[in-house]
Amino acid sequence: MTAMKVAALVLGLAGAFALGVVIGPQITDRTPTVASSDEIQPAPAPSPAPVSTKPSAGRPAASRVSVVPASAPEVQERMKPVLNAGTNLKWAAEGFRDAEQFATVAYAARNTGIPFAVLKHHVIAESKSLADAIHEFRPKLDAKAEAKRAGIMARSDVAAIGIH
What we know:
- The chain has two domains: 1-29; 73-161, no CATH class.
- The chain is 54% helix and 0% strand.
- It is built from seven helices and no strands.
- It has helices at 3-28, 73-79, 89-93, 99-112, 116-125, 130-137, 143-161.
- α6 (130-137) crosses α7 (143-161).
- The radius of gyration is 23 Å and the shape is elongated.
């Protein structure tokens, strides 16, 4: 191969890489584009989840509901052995409404063998129930029972953390 061909090949690869760097974020960004800045309206702020310290009907007084964020360091440390080694815990906790939902999906992934990222995507991005997501990938399993089992394990973990 001549030096000219090698140089052309290297320039072509560098150009393709540069093009990918420039247009990659535009391809993967799923937010709608706005024609002018006059049309931009701020998104409504999400309302915070209600925190109840009163026992609900049918529950013993010792069972109090408190919302623990999935991003809490204690939660992430508790989920570390449940998730695959090397999982980015900040990414894993991102998008869940609370620690219990995060832990439930993590336990369901471990118990069913379905990758955590797949279950997270279906529960968070597609707003499916955990049982529906499990059933989609493991139709022979009792998806409702697996989701319930994961929920029980998650509630136990969140209660053990003791953040109120």
